[in-house]
Amino acid sequence: MQSHESRLLYKKKRIGLMGGTFDPIHQGHLVTAESARSEFSLDKVIFVPSGQPPHKKKLPISNKEHRYLMTVLATAVNPYFEVSRVEIDRPGESYAIDTVRYFRSMMDEASELFFITGADAILEIVNWKDVKGLFDRCSFIAATRPGFDLSILRDELLNKISINYLEKIIPLEVPAMAISSSNIRHRIENNRTIKYLLPDEVENFIYKNMLYKKTT
Ligand code: ATP
Ligand code: MG
Fold this sequence. Notes:
single chain, alpha/beta, Rossmann fold, binds magnesium ion
């Protein structure tokens, strides 16, 4: 049996987790992850494509292996980026708390975990499973677009969570916020260009596998 010590992959490390459906991954995700890495001196950012996200249950989402491969293609050139299959391979719905627990179990006490999300997702956080468990195990980096009034976020969250938790939400201003996966899917359906909204490799993968085209 492995000793606890040898399972500790991360010692005195600052690790970022970037969760998402990545259907498809785009420059907004990549710019956010890279800004977070640089601004908060993270040793690495691990992208975690979701299995079945509970909040997107009713929406059709692409095959998880396609989403995983697009995430690998998009992140391959950045030496600080990694992709984890933990949610893809876990049966059932994907909850952030399970993923955070999983990575925490590989980190020593001196290591820090940062969960990177868009500010839109942060507002939803109070509805996530085991919010307290999450805040006990990680901080949140909340990406906002330039000019976004953070006090709105603060006021809205203060109504729902304790002030101590609020301190663990760190804002990060990033450019490229207007890009979204749903907009990219919509553009493809309508035969509009998606060039430069996501990496060329991902764009080519989408065309090769005929993703997001309505089959009539
Ligand atoms: P959809 O349009 O289908 O909701 P999305 O573009 O929001 O997709 P997700 O995979 O749902 O992509 O997002 C994963 C994470 O990335 C979430 O925390 C989300 O808030 C964040 N995010 C999405 N788009 C951007 C962006 N342009 N800039 C910064 N963060 C983003
Ligand atoms: Mg979204």
